[in-house]
Amino acid sequence: MAAPLELVLSADATGQVANCTVWEPVTGSVLLTYRGGNTSHRGLAVLGGQYLLGGQLGKNYINVWELQRRDQLQQKIVCPGPVNCLAASPNGLYLVAGIAESIYLWEVCTGHLLAILNNHYQDVTCLTFTDDGSHIVSGAKDSLVLVWSLYSALQVETSRGPEPRYVWSRHSLPITDLQCGIGGPQSRVVTSSLDQTVKLWEICSGDLLVSVLFDVRIMSVAFDPAEYHLFCGGSDGVIYQVDLYTTPEQRERQFHPEQEMVLKGHRNQVTCLSVSLDGSMLISGSHDETVCVWDIQSKQCLRTVPHKGPVTNVFIIAAPSNMLRSESKPSFPLPHFSKHLQGAEGCDGPESGGVILRLGKQQGSEENTYLQRAEQLQSLLGESEGKNLSGLVEQLRSRTSELEEELNVVRKINKDLFDFSARIITKQ
User: Single GO cellular component annotation (predicted)?
Assistant: First the structure.
């Protein structure tokens, strides 16, 4: 059997069977289960294709599994408080967690707590990175959506803490979900709220592009890969499909269920949505204790996967190459994660203020260092220049002789013309 290209990760609030279940979306076959505890809503994340992280529901730690050693917890990351939501950067270098009204930012390779972002006034409910990892977007119960530049957040200023790049305050009730599209700092962000609206924003300008009003509260949102459609999970169990390219374009729109696309199959609020990489399938999780797989083209429910409790997390990922190989090991170890800001613990050791580089798995001790390779390249360039220098000198000498001969000819012609003109003038 060929290895699957995509996998679905799902978790429910009880964790009776497993904390997280990994299954194949086409057949529904369960491939892996990760046991131990239960994960909070939007508290599940894959770190660098090597580890699975799950914020323990109601507790102040994050469960960590190696993707291959699914039956054994690798470690627990102790946090300053219960984890409301969790996100890992696409490159696996940074981890952020929403704890109360603050956002904690760790560097994965060192475990250092680099920043605490404190601009929300109530509990943080959702977090995500842009696809290039350059920005963090956060939503909270204070109805605010904040966009943070990762570069700015990492700048250490003793006078004041990091400030968000944008503060989007057009929602009037708590934020329930958000998602970034493709494009890094040029991408768009969709947000949903209990105020029954879904809003589309642009990161590069900070502008609100579209606001869609519904008749029910919206609990979850997702883009399709081409960003032509939005899928919005309602508190009534219905999934609403919004066409982003309708004509004429309207900044303020109201969704009309009788005229637009809806997907019906859940009996309770839809808490999680995720679209497959090719845009053909939609995965939805609900408080009715089921996960549904939908064919987007036909709007039909292909499969219903039961769970033991309200579904808290569902998302679809490209299958990591080592996830289904029990003999493989992570390419990097996880360090101890600090609960205090770097520099606040009196760290005066040799590692304080240093830079740690994570080398690839193929890096070997017999391979030349960067400095050695640079010296070899300089030597080769010097040899090449030495061989070509003598030839260039001969070419210049030859060309100089040709130009001198041409100059002498021009001078002779000029003298002859002057003499001829002088004779004509004197005869007159």
Answer: rixosome complex
